[in-house]
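Write out this protein's structure.
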Amino acid sequence: MRFILRVSVFACLTLCACQSPSLEPERRATGFVQALNARDIDLMAEFAATPFRFRDQEWKSAPDGSGFVRGAATERVANTSEELRTLLLDVGANVKIADPTPVADPPSKADLLSDPLSGAPIQWNELNLVLFRRGEGDVEHIAIVGVDSKGKVKCLYVN
């Protein structure tokens, strides 16, 4: 009887050890960004889940002519796998992230939600946010990838 109990406990422990834990948000976000830069829509879709939100924020000249300020944001939502694929094709054709390494010491989630994600739908609040730099120019271009608790990319913000 003890032998059967030991074998059962060993089998349970083995099965638990074999389950792959959800990758931490930074690794999932980095994989998504690398797939995006490679224009690998299939891999991007594997990292993502619906509903998927893509928020694109424009820059505009400051009213006083002193430089640039954030302009209007457009948010698109893919609710089905077909819509997701269509959206990812568009994003993959138009977005590149210069540095596929997450920012080492990003602002707090509260800071990201208040600026630059001010006005974003509440769904962003529920996600782990990973910040990337898209390159420097006249303005600081960034990307924010939102990863849910299951390790799926649910949102992408670019400016």
